[in-house]
Write a structure and sequence with these properties.
Distance between the termini: 75 Å
Structural class: alpha+beta
CATH superfamily of one domain: OmpA-like domain
Strand order of the largest sheet: 1-2-5-3-4
Order of helices and strands: HEEHHEHHEEH
Number of helices: 6
Number of strands: 5
CATH architecture of one domain: 2-Layer Sandwich
Helix content: 40-55%
CATH class of one domain: Alpha Beta
Radius of gyration: 29 Å
Shape: elongated
Strand content: 5-15%
Length: about 220
């Protein structure tokens, strides 16, 4: 009995192609289903993050316009805050350095440009100038340290208004100086922070973008 060639035992091309096409259709359906699920998750996430991203983007753009795009020693722009090393601003006796006043003048121009823009101003509730005072557990915060820190933050606020009189004349209500207790293991606790607090309008914009996904 003669041996038959092995290809004679293979199924015909028609059924094989049919199974391949059916498999491709099923795979495409599965990938489409997965893509729709991912899209339904990503769209609300993007709707939530976009207003805050645009808000932070405006702050970073104003900072880079004044200081340039390259990193600046002693300055750390982070989202809606600008951190500054105190040694750039203050001398050892607690008075503002002449160079520190120049740096504050740059910051004043940043805040003025943000507040002059109607769209950005509507998203700003407060510009909080703050330092953090060490917290000593059960003993709390040293009153003298807190008073000195509060005084230093007030001096900086006054310097901002002196360097840009329009900032104090038109937008003083947007500014506040504070000395807060430093939290345990808090990052940048030794730096002065200029925190731009978002307004309720920004939260409303986030909710409006999210509502269409809840209908």
């Amino acid at each position: 009995m003669k041996n038959r060639p092995f290809w004679n035992y293979l199924p015909s091309a028609g059924p094989v192609l049919s199974f391949i096409l059916i498999g491709l259709v099923l795979l495409s359906a599965l990938l489409y289903y997965r893509a729709v699920k991912i899209q339904r998750f990503l769209e609300p996430a993007l709707a939530l993050s976009q207003p805050r991203y645009e808000f932070s983007k405006s702050i970073i753009a104003a900072f880079q316009k004044e200081f340039g795009a390259n990193p600046v020693r002693g300055f750390q722009p982070r989202m809606s805050s600008i951190f500054v090393e105190p040694s750039l601003l203050f001398s050892r006796d607690g008075t503002l350095k002449p160079s520190g006043k120049m740096e504050l003048a740059k910051l004043a121009r940043i805040f003025l440009s943000l507040l002059q823009d109607e769209r950005t101003r509507s998203d700003i509730s407060l510009v909080l100038i703050m330092a953090r005072v060490p917290y000593y557990g059960t003993q709390g915060v040293n009153a003298a340290e807190r008073a000195n820190a509060q005084l230093a933050m007030g001096l900086m606020q006054d310097a901002l208004f002196q360097s840009e009189p329009e900032l104090g004349r038109k937008y003083a209500a947007y500014f506040a100086a504070a000395a807060l207790p430093a939290g345990l293991h808090e990052t940048n606790a030794d730096m002065v922070e200029f925190r731009i607090v978002s307004s309720e309008l920004l939260h409303i914009e986030v909710m409006q973008k999210l509502m269409k996904y809840m209908e």
